[in-house]
Amino acid sequence: MLNMRNVIILLLIPCISVSGTDVNSTLCSESCSKEEECVMSDGVTWKCACQKNLNYSTEMSSLTPELVCGSNLIKTGLSKCHMESVGLNSSSVHLLNSSCQGFEDRKENITMVMAVMGRREGECGTTITTNGTHVTYTNTLHASHTVVGNVIFNPKADVQFACSYPLDMQTSLHIAINPIVSTVKIAITGLGISTAKMSLYQTPNYTEPYTSERVTLPIESTLYVGVFVEDIEGDRFAVVLESCYATPSPDPSDPVQFFMIQNRCPNNQGFITVQENGVSLNSAFSVELFKFVGNFDSVYLHCGVEVCDKTAETCTPSCPARRSTFVKSEEVLTIGPITCAGCRLPPGSSSARTGLAGAWMIIGGLISVILHLHLL
Fold this sequence. Notes:
disordered C terminus, ZP-C_dom, ZP_dom
C-alpha cells in the first residue's frame, strides 16, 4: 500500500513576470493618457502615474480650469498631472459641498479631474444671481495640498467659476422654487431619450413661472404657456404644438374639450395668441383662459407636441390647417387645476356647463392625443 506521507505532489505553476513587458503592464499602458506612464505601486499592481518630465509650470497661478456650461449640467475640472506638478492632491478635488467629489475623465488623451453640478440653487453649494436678463451660477473647485512626510508642497487651491445663461422659459424654471411644470420622456429613434416640459408663466417674456401648487387667475388676466424639449439639437429639430386644450377634469380624454390649438393652428375665437411654434426647441402661446372657457371656473390644461425634423419637412405651421392625418400616441402633458379668481357661477349651475359657443367640443369615445414624434 502506498504510504501517503512519502508522496510528494509537484504543482506546476506558470511563472508570471512582473517586468515592464508583462500582460498587466501592457494593459496598464493602454489605459494611461499621454501624460502618464505605468508604475508598479505595491510590487504586484501596475497603475498610471504622471510622468516626471512634464513641462507644466509649478506656479499655482498657472492652473487653468476647464469649464463647460451645459444646458442641464455644469462641468469644471483641472488636468490631473498639472495639479500634481504644483503640489496638489488630485484625489482631493470637490466643490463647495464636499459631497460633490471629483472624478477622473479622459479628454483628448489627457486625464482630467472633473466635478459636475446641476443648475439648481444650493446644489453642490451653488449660488445663483440674476440681473433681469441673465442668470449666473457660481461655485468653487477645491483641491488640497500634497503632504509627503511633514512637508507641505503647496497650500490648497480654491478656483471659483461661474456660468451665465440668458433668462428664458427654460432657465427660469431652474431658479424658481417648486415651479409648476409637467414633464414627459420622449424616445426619439436614433437619438435616445429626451424630455418635454410644459410650464405656466405670469409675464409675456416667459421668465416668471408660477410656483404654487394651484394657479388662480382673475377672469381678465392672460395665461402664458411655454413648452420646450431638452437634450436634442436645436439646429435640426423644432417643437411644434400639435394641440392644446382645456378640460374641466384632469382626464385628457374628458369629453368636454376647449381647443386653443388644434392641428397646429390657434382657435379663431380671438383669445389665443401664438408667440412661437415650429421654429426652435421652444413653443409658446398666451390665452385669456377664463374668457375662452366661459362658465368653467376651474380647468386643466393639456398640450401635445411634435418633435419635427427641420431637415426633412416644413415645421412652421401654415394656418388655417387641414385636419391632421397623423396617428398620435396617448402620451400627455397636463397642468392644473387652473382656477378663476372671483368667478361665481349662478346658484344651481355647474362648472361643467357649456362655455363659449364654438369654443368647445364633445367627442365620443377615447381621445387619442398628444405626444407625436414625426421623424423621417
